[in-house]
C-alpha cells in the first residue's frame, strides 16, 4: 500500500501545483481558493522567505534565486519543452514493453497513432512561426482583423518593436516580439500560441488528452486482468457492481486495496505510468476544454483577461458606449487603420471609461454616432471577433481564410493603409 500512496501522492501533488501555477491567475478563478493558493505560493511565501534571507544572508541567496527564477520564467529556453518530451518518451519506454504484448491488433494500430500524434503536433506547435509581426509581415497582420474600439483601438504602437499594433496582437515579454492574435506564451512548447500555430496547439492538447486517457484505460484493463487471473473475485469497482464477494464480506475495502497494490507492484513501471496518465488526464482535458470554450466565444486567453478587466470597470461605474456604422461607411483614418480586412464584420460600437463616471464630453474626438449609454454587463457588449463557433474554428485552423472578397485588390500588397504609411514616412524624412 505504501507504493501506491507514494506514487499517487506525488502525481496528485504535481498535477495540483501545475494547475494552481497555470490557472490561478485566470479571471474566472478570482476570489476562489485556487487564486488564494496562487497568491500564497507566488507572492506571500516568497515575501516571507525574502524577509528571512535578508536577516540571515543579507539577501545574497534571494538575489541568486531571483536571477535564476527570472531566467526560467521570463527568458525563452527549452527546459520545460525538453521535460515534456522526456515525460512522453520515458513514460512510453516504461509502459510499452509490459503493455504491448497484451494489445490486440486494433489497439496496436490505434495505439501507434495515439503515440505518434503528440510528437508531431508538439513539433509543429514549437517550431511554427506563431505570427510574429515585423516590418515584412506588418501590413499583412494589419489586414487580419479590424479594430473593435473596445479591446483594441487604432493608433497604439509597440514601444519595443516600434510598429503599430494590429488588432488582437500582443507583445510577448519572453519572446521579445509582437505576435498576431496572441493567446499566451506556453513554456511547454517554448513558443507563443498565436494566429499561425494555435491550431497545432489545440491538436497537441487533443492528442495528448487522448493518449493519456487511452493509455491509462488500457493499462487499467491489463492490471485488472492480472489481478483477476489470481484472485477471480476481485473487481475494479465492487461497491458499484455489488459483487457476491463484496456483499458477503470476503472482499472488503482494505483487502481490495491490498490486491490493487499487488497488481501495481507486479509491474511497477507500467503501473506507475498508468496512474500518472489517469491522474493527469483530467488536467489535459480541462485545458483542452478551456481553449475550445475560448474558440466558441471568439476570444483568446489575453482577451479573456481584458474582458474581465472591463467587467471590473463596469462594476465601479463610468463605462459608456455608443454605436458605430457597421456597414463600413465609417471613414477610417488610414494613417493608423487598414482600409480593408479579411474579417466579415466591422466594429459596431466604441466603449470607453471615464474617470468622473459621466459620459465623455469631447465626443467629437471619438468615433461613433448618437448618445452615450452606460454599460453594466459584459453580455450587453458585442464581441466583434465572435462570428459563430464554426467560423471561429475556421479562423483558428485556416488563419488566412478570406471571409470576404477583396473587391479586386490584394489585401496584402495593395493596401491603402500601406500606401498611406509610406507617404507619411516619406514626409517625415
TrEMBL record:
A Pfam match: DHHC
Residues covered by region (Disordered): 408-429
Catalytic activity: L-cysteinyl-[protein] + hexadecanoyl-CoA = S-hexadecanoyl-L-cysteinyl-[protein] + CoA
Subcellular location: Membrane
Keyword list, A-Z: Acyltransferase, Lipoprotein, Membrane, Palmitate, Transferase, Transmembrane, Transmembrane helix
UniProt-listed InterPro entries: Palmitoyltrfase_DHHC, PFA4/ZDH16/20/ERF2-like
Record flagged with keyword Lipoprotein: yes
Stretches with biased composition (Basic and acidic residues): 408-421
Domain Palmitoyltransferase DHHC: 155-308
Membrane topology term: Multi-pass membrane protein
E.C. number(s) listed in UniProt: 2.3.1.225
Enzyme class: transferase
Bilayer-crossing regions: 6-24, 76-96, 108-126, 200-223, 283-301
Record comment regarding domains: The DHHC domain is required for palmitoyltransferase activity.
Similarity-based family: Belongs to the DHHC palmitoyltransferase family.
Name of the protein described by the UniProt record: Palmitoyltransferase
Source organism of the structure: Neurospora intermedia
Organism placement in taxonomy: Eukaryota, Fungi, Dikarya, Ascomycota, Pezizomycotina
